[in-house]
Automatic annotation (TrEMBL):
Protein's name according to its UniProt entry: Outer membrane protein assembly factor BamE
Any one of the GO CC terms: Bam protein complex
Organism for this UniProt entry: Pseudogulbenkiania ferrooxidans 2002
Record's subunit section: Part of the Bam complex.
Annotated keywords: Cell outer membrane, Lipoprotein, Membrane, Palmitate, Signal
Gene: bamE
Domain of life: Bacteria
Length: 128
């Protein structure tokens, strides 16, 4: 009888659904890495802007390639517990000191951008 109980305990200990340690998992932090570039910042870019103006809007690029000095890469990676990593890459191209184009994708804006006339009612009520 003891042999059956010991055998059953060994068999059941192998089941992950019955293992109490599978119920308790340690906390895993979200790990953001790279440049957090939003769509509203990218919308402010205009062709012909200088490198310093682009750096002011987007920040210092994470990657500057010595072999491709006419291009800046803004890479962003977010690792969340139990989810696939989220990767974004935005590339800004230059011709000399002037920006020519932007390729890739940026992150969504943190807050919704209000239309230009949305603040008009608030300004009118102050004037009255």
């Amino acid at each position: 009888m003891r042999v059956l109980i010991i055998a059953a305990a060994i068999v059941l200990s192998g089941c992950s659904s019955l293992n109490p340690m599978s119920w308790f998992t340690p906390y895993q932090m979200d790990i953001p890495q790279g440049n957090y570039v939003t769509q509203d910042a990218v919308a402010k870019l205009k062709p012909g802007m200088t490198r310093s103006q682009v750096r002011f809007l987007l920040g210092t690029p994470l990657l500057t390639d010595a072999f491709h000095s006419n291009r800046w890469d803004y890479k962003y990676r977010l690792v969340r517990a139990g989810k696939p990593a989220e990767d974004k890459l935005l590339t800004v191209f230059f011709d000399g000191d002037a920006m020519t184009r932007v390729e890739g994708e940026a992150l969504p804006a943190e807050r919704a951008i209000l239309p230009a006339d949305a603040s008009a009612p608030a300004q009118q009520s102050k004037a009255q």
